Description:
A: disordered C terminus; B: mainly alpha; extended
Amino acid sequence: MHIPDGFISAPVAVGGVVVAAGAVACAVKVTNRGLGEKQVPLMGVLAAFIFAAQMLNFPVAGGTSGHFMGAALAAILLGPWAGLLIMTCVLLVQCLVFQDGGLLALGANVFNMGIVGCFLGYYIYQGVTLLMGNKRVVVLVAGGIAGWAAIVVAALFCALELGISGTVPLHVVLPAMGGVHALIGIGEGLITAAVLALVLATRPDLMRLGSQRA
Amino acid sequence: MKFQWWHGALIAGFILALLSPLASSSPDGLERVAEDKGFIGAAREFWYELIPDYTMPGIGNEALATIISGVFGTAILFGIGYGIAKALKAKSET
């Protein structure tokens, strides 16, 4: 759901840039204090993996495709602030090098897929594992739900920005974006859970929570 | 250099990039909605092009051009992610 230039109005785009810039500055400050030895390569591989996975559009119903977003996965593994930094790097490179997502719309894209995706995904995962415990199956289900919700709510914010911009009536675009991404979100949830399963099987110590509460 | 867990993870990322020509070329969620609801025409082109459509320019074979652009992007993102984390970690230690 990379918004191209022209889809959102100048005020919405500027608002997105301001909020995104503030959040990224905050992310740099917060991440600054909490990065350990293992997190350095993890940030690199997650940025690389999310970029590569985002290229792999999978078909969903009716001649439509979707692709992995990765915000929930990054936030679950590294926390929402470091996750936001990773998503910002991915979106920045996609915009500047691959012309995917508009330059003026970059702030809005970072807002939707970075801020909304990472924080929502992170807190849903935290909430579910807090309530249900830290068993393997709970972690996978929580990751799946977090992935699904992160992309659906990011899509709803994208719809809201299009509506506020006057590009398309809100009552038209909101259900349309929500509906398509409810389907794409199934893929997002499955991929998120699958990667978490792989991490649990090979390097369970990389799970933030898993290591802290085991 | 000993084989580390993240070498495996990085290789997995590159394998995904190699699979990129298999991706569905159907419009994605937002593009589909924009087409259906009639605002796809509002999209403005970029004022420059480096690697548009994840296809490395100047390569005749489209699948190969996609793979090269994917491997290139995966490599730069590893570098940027690793570099930023390294820089932030160095700052947090001082």
